[in-house]
Amino acid sequence: MLARSVLCVLLMCACDGEAPDADGGRRGDDAAAHLDAAAHLDAAVHIDAAVRDGGRHDAAPEPDAGRQLDAALDGGRCEPRCAARTCGDDGCGGSCGACRANERCDAGGCAPDGVYFVAPGGDDADPGTRDRPFGTLAHALSVLVAGDRLWLRGGEYREVVDVPLARGTEAARIVVAAYDGERPVVRGRLVLRRPYHWTFSGVNVTRDPATSGDGDLLHLRDGRGWVFRDAEIWNARGYAAATIGGGRAYAAEPSGWRFLGNCVHDNGAVHGPDQDHDVYMNFGDRGRDGFFERNVIWGAPNGTNVKVGAGDPTHPDPRGVVMRFNTFHDARYNVRLVDGSASIVLRRNLFSRATQAWPSVTQNVQGYCLYGTGNALLENLGGGADAFDSYYEPGASPSCRVPAGRSFTRPTRRDVRFPVSPGFDRTDACDGFRPSGAAEAYGRWASLDDAVVGDWDGDGADGPGAMMGNSWYLRDDARAGGHDHVFEWARASDAHLAGDLDGDGVDEAVAVRDGTWFVRGGGSFDFGAAGDQFVLGDWDGDGVDTAGYVRDRTVHLRDDRGRVTSFRYGSAGDRYVAGDWDGDGVDTVGVVRGNLVHLRNTNSAGPADVSYAFGSSGDVHVFGDWDGDGVDTVGVVRGVTWLLRDPPGGGAATRTFGYDG
Fold it and tell me: What is the pTM of this model?
């Protein structure tokens, strides 16, 4: 119908009025002819719309009618406008192209659906793409839903952020992260209420005198399964620089949370004595399963590096927190456990410089009116104080009341080293506080409990796994960054392995305890005994990994039919490893002796087929297919630094990055 209307316009334009002049112009009544033609077109469009829309004569004309009229008056030609555009309207009623199912069209370009950007100088009216980012973090957070990712470009965001947050899920986390190599800073305050399965990475926060006031700079309240990591929080002037709070209104919140790899420092004295802390855990006894790990916390001259508990008899106190591999420095008390705080476990932390002699001595850890049970101080190192731990338990103080039927308690205390000077390299920067001597085994920069390697996402390339206790922090790619998967499983004392036991291309976590093999996700079996070394590999090239053990230099490998191959290889004191050294699809064994690697290409007795040196004798050697080429190659873990080599054999590392979870 519209095409016929346009044809009518052309005919009327040619016939209505007098003939054109020789130069192609028209006489003065052409304007009326044009108006008449436009009226005919508009009427035709309305009639067509009425028929199409079931007789609704008030239906709006098609959006392309104006474009078609312009084209008709221009001789019937409409030039598509698709220069530098890959999708969207071409200006003539057509399309410049379509985006894929997981993309959206924005300003003529395809952008990943669910991936947004925010940048200082952006505009909240824009769609949040790389080229047209949002302008405020508050608005950007408000649009995110399960499975979305927000990239923060570098620069300052001067705002107080406190907006409702959508819920993520275990399978579809919401990720908010600093853009690669850039440093975003919120200058003001960041309040995150009930984050369910959110990850915040590299979101730094500092004080703005105009908006921060005397409150905390970062407030994480309630929620489940959240991670806040790799950020600097500094220069507060309030009761805390960072608060992990909540716990009154919602059952089991906060739970499953992780505060990981952060640097919190320099909370200035503002309030009364002992009231201005670096970190304040104040979330009641409903929360569970919190992890406070690998943080550097320093500078609380009028408070505590980390205070656990409200110090208010009417408020329930936290329970169920593991605090491990942290460095605490320069506060009245490094850590304070208050009132009913329960099941708080401090392990392999480094404590330094506690300044408040109260009631009589300075102490790294103080129990204040502590009656909570299940607390433990395990394998910690302290110094810079008169005592490692001390307890304030007055019988008559009105601020130290114990509930009926309860009594003061003291944590389990085991393997505490005190006093030891940490020998820090520097104490004024987040990448400092690196200790020396005996202190190297404690705190933020201490070596991993264990390291594992596996193909965690089935892409054919292996990624690192960092163990802290029985926590598995797994990363899909062999490069720097945060974990992609994390869970608590098995025991810290088990042998930790990874392999594809069901042939689906994805490696499972495996733990071996005295010859009993446990597979995460279900299943166990026996092969070997206590004191053996354990290996896992695809011994017959069928795509399924099976078990092996080594006893007295004899290797025993079992395939998925239960057949066992045994042979002698290596020397006493060797560490046994397995991998596909030649890319033939079959895993074979090797040994590490100091910094020397000796590999066999067949599962049989005989000399090494390949030998080379890599790393140092004190390193932890790891092997994996880092680049997905089908060949397993060497790497070492030194402290929390991974040095990996892509080509086979010895030589320089081709990948070096820090990864501790």
Answer: 0.84
